[in-house]
């Protein structure tokens, strides 16, 4: 019993000594941000919620009020065929999302240069299950959107206002 406690304490101290820590909430280096993108898309609403949940930044409705402006360059989704079976039907495909953006201040000075976030998922395809695969695609796109949001917040937290 004493030996198990000693081993557990040793492992915990080694884990703490290696610098491991859970990824916490991102804090953004600016107080107000304007999202220069379609305000009625699901992605924009999810991004607003994610930014507001940081606690230190707020999404404003006018660019003149913002410390930073997130400019959407592209948010493309596509389906790419990976392989075909012997009869020429699709066997595997890949869902891709590319999110391109840049961050400027209200004067137009660049805070973060043009950047892109790529996410993708490989999917197998079975004939006769088209409806189920369509639902799977929509779930995968939602997961990919969440992945893009998390990566974007991490990148925005590293922006240094001038």
From TrEMBL:
PANTHER family: LPS-ASSEMBLY LIPOPROTEIN LPTE
Protein name: LPS-assembly lipoprotein LptE
Domain of life: Bacteria
Compartments in which it is found: Cell outer membrane
Major subcellular site: membrane
GO cellular component: cell outer membrane; transporter complex
UniProt keyword terms in alphabetical order: Cell outer membrane, Lipoprotein, Membrane, Palmitate, Signal
Family stated for the protein in its record: Belongs to the LptE lipoprotein family.
HAMAP family: LPS_assembly_LptE
Keyword flag Membrane: yes
Record-linked Pfam families: LptE
Signal peptide: 1-24
Listed GO MF terms: lipopolysaccharide binding
Function: Together with LptD, is involved in the assembly of lipopolysaccharide (LPS) at the surface of the outer membrane. Required for the proper assembly of LptD. Binds LPS and may serve as the LPS recognition site at the outer membrane.
GO biological process, one term: Gram-negative-bacterium-type cell outer membrane assembly
UniProt topology in membrane: Lipid-anchor
Assembly description: Component of the lipopolysaccharide transport and assembly complex. Interacts with LptD.
Organism: Candidatus Dactylopiibacterium carminicum
């Amino acid at each position: 019993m004493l030996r198990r406690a000693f081993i557990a304490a040793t492992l915990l101290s080694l884990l703490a000594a290696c610098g491991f820590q859970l990824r916490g909430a991102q804090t953004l280096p600016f107080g107000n941000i304007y999202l220069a993108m379609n305000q009625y898309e699901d992605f924009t609403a999810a991004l607003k919620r994610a930014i507001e949940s940081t606690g230190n930044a707020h999404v404003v409705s006018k660019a003149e009020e913002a410390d930073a402006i997130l400019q959407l360059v592209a948010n493309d989704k596509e389906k790419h065929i990976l392989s075909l079976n012997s009869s020429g039907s699709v066997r595997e495909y890949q869902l891709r999302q590319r999110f391109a953006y840049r961050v400027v201040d209200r004067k137009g000075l660049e805070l973060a240069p043009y950047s892109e976030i790529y996410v993708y998922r490989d999917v197998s395809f079975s004939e006769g299950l088209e409806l189920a695969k369509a639902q799977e695609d929509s779930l995968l796109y939602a997961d990919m959107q969440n992945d893009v949001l998390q990566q974007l917040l991490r990148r925005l937290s590293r922006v240094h206002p001038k």
